[in-house]
Amino acid sequence: VSDYCVQVRELGYRLQELISESLGLEKDYIKKVLGEQGQHMAVNYYPPCPQPELTYGLPGHTDPNALTILLQDLQVAGLQVLKDGKWLAVNPQPNAFVINIGDQLQALSNGTYKSVWHRAIVNTDKPRMSVASFLCPYDHALISPAKPLTQHGCGAVYRDFTYAEYYSKFWGRNLDQEHCLELFKN
Ligand code: OGA
Ligand code: NI
Q1: Is there an atom of ligand 1 within 6 Å of 44 CB?
Q2: Which SUPFAM superfamilies does this UniProt record tie to the protein (predicted)?
Q3: Domains along the sequence of the chain with CATH
């Protein structure tokens, strides 16, 4: 587990560098803003459910952190993402992770990268496991749309906030309410 955490962190950093560059920012822009990043791991276990249509493994939500690296169970599907108003299955692929953009990267990129709605459903006869690794800004990181991305068009879509402020707002509501970033719009 410890080796896995170290490796996954390195992968997350590389992705953050590439995302920065893709936005026309300095390679270490995102890493600098997020500071000493926290890292959480959730080993999700979804037991079989005789009436899977009555419940969810996880209700629809966006991830409140910066970037999530998800390892799926190869044998059992369950993850879905919301695209154009429809829930689509994200089936497991061998030797592949699912990368979720979290709310903080949506804010930093001024909405260019989207923190997608996703959920997990359960199965009638098979249990499912997934391993989610969350990279999180340090509590006092000041999150604001990167200046170069606010200079044309709509300006800054979101106001400045600290991750601590965001996190308490996020968990102070129901998970499947409106996108939490809506509450931080300018
Ligand atoms: C999560 C999550 C999805 C899954 O832990 O935030 O979205 O497939 N997990 O378990
Ligand atoms: Ni999630």
Answers
A1: yes
A2: Clavaminate synthase-like
A3: 1-184 (2.60.120.330)
Q: What is the pLDDT of residues 81-100, one digit of tens each?
A: 999 999 999 999 999 999 99
Cα distance between residue 170 and residue 174, in whole Å: 8
Q: Please, what is the Cα angle at 132 between 127 and 31, to 5 degrees?
A: 175
- According to DSSP, the residues that pair with 80 across neighbouring strands are 89, 119
- CB atoms within 5 A of ion ligand 2 belong to 63
The 3-state DSSP class for residue 34 equals: helix
Atom number, ligand 1, closest to the C-alpha of residue 44? 10
What's the pLDDT at 154? 78
Q: Starting from the CA of residue 80, give the closest ligand.
A: 1
120 touches ligand 1 (CB under 6 Å)? yes
Sign of the dihedral through C-alpha 66, 61, 42, 133: negative
Q: Inform me whether the pLDDT recorded for 104 exceeds 90.
A: yes
Tell me the C-alpha distance between 158 and 185, whole Å.
Answer: 4
